[in-house]
Design goal:
The chain is an alpha/beta fold. It has helices at 11-19, 39-43, 54-67, 80-89, 103-118, 141-151, 208-221, 232-235; strands at residues 2-6, 26-31, 47-50, 70-73, 94-97, 124-131, 157-160, 172-179, 185-192, 197-204, 228-230. α5 (103-118) runs parallel beside α6 (141-151). Bound molecules: nicotinamide-adenine-dinucleotide. Nicotinamide-adenine-dinucleotide (NAD) is lined by residues 6-7, 9-13, 31-33, 51-53, 55-56, 59, 74-77, 98-101, 210.
């Protein structure tokens, strides 16, 4: 499988470069800030694999839709406008977008959904995420996906952090973002009841899990030809 790697000079890009051949992938072109791709590279590739920036993904969407090249993207921190751009391009090409390509987090989302749908609404839910000091967006894309999965099962209103006088309101869900050092990524979902607490925690200790998950998903996604916006549930 031949891929165009968008964000190849970044932390994730370098990992993807080093692992690609283990998944039968060959990087035939690289896109970074200030560069894009033309018809020749589009013809030579099966897909664009993107771990860049929200602006990078938005630019890639335009070029890929023009050339009919499918996209697998892990870029997070998209604005509403950039999400609309993604959905618009997905009318012309298949796009797989996942805020977290770890297989463990994929299962965490399923477990959290079961818990949110099964526990009484008297259980309070909080999400705590921890990442390295250089992370640009907060809360993490993964925390927002966990929130969406919980909201699919029960009504709750999100708030971001607490300070001052702020007794907990019924039906609220607080997202807490912790930043520091070189933490790869931790997500905890807490269901706190009267006399019992249920906690789900996923800890990433190496960024390799995201690269491996993305390459695994790319192997499956190369068979998808129908335009649309796909997520990991559709593929794995
Ligand atoms: P990074 O800052 O180390 O690298 C970003 C790369 O993107 C650089 O090579 C840069 O040149 C390129 N880039 C930036 N803007 C661009 C543009 N406009 N056009 C083309 N290229 C552009 O970042 P990183 O740590 O490698 O992370 C990249 C993205 O992947 C971030 O959004 C991050 O949150 C996300 N991420 C997702 C997952 C996941 O599993 N989905 C895991 C880790 C990181």
């Amino acid at each position: 499988m031949k891929i165009l790697l968008c964000g190849s000079h970044g932390r994730m890009g370098r990992l993807l470069m080093s692992l690609a051949s283990h998944y039968g992938c060959e990087v035939v072109g690289e896109i970074n800030r200030g560069s894009n791709f033309g018809t020749e590279l589009a013809r030579a590739s099966d897909m664009c694999l993107d771990f860049s920036s929200p602006e990078g993904l938005a630019e890639l969407c335009i070029a890929a839709a023009e050339h009919g090249t499918r996209i697998v993207s892990g870029t997070t921190g998209l604005s509403d406008e950039q999400k609309r751009r993604l959905a618009l391009s997905a009318q012309n090409i298949p796009i797989l977008h996942a805020a977290n390509f770890s297989i463990g987090v994929h299962i965490l989302n399923k477990l959290v959904r079961i818990a949110a749908g099964s526990l009484p609404t008297s259980f309070d839910i909080e999400i705590i995420e921890k990442h390295h000091s250089q992370k640009k967006d907060a809360p993490s894309g993964t925390a927002m996906t966990l929130l969406k999965n919980i909201q699919a099962e029960r009504q709750c209103e999100e708030i971001f952090g607490r300070h001052g006088e702020c007794k907990r309101n019924a039906g609220e869900l607080c997202l807490h973002s912790v930043r520091g050092g070189d933490m790869v990524g931790e997500h905890e979902v807490l269901f706190a009841g009267q006399g019992e607490t249920l906690e789900f925690v996923h800890r990433a200790t190496s960024r390799e899990i995201f690269a491996r998950g993305a390459l695994l998903a790319a192997q499956k996604f190369v068979k998808i030809n129908e335009p649309g916006l796909y997520n990991l549930d559709d593929i794995l």
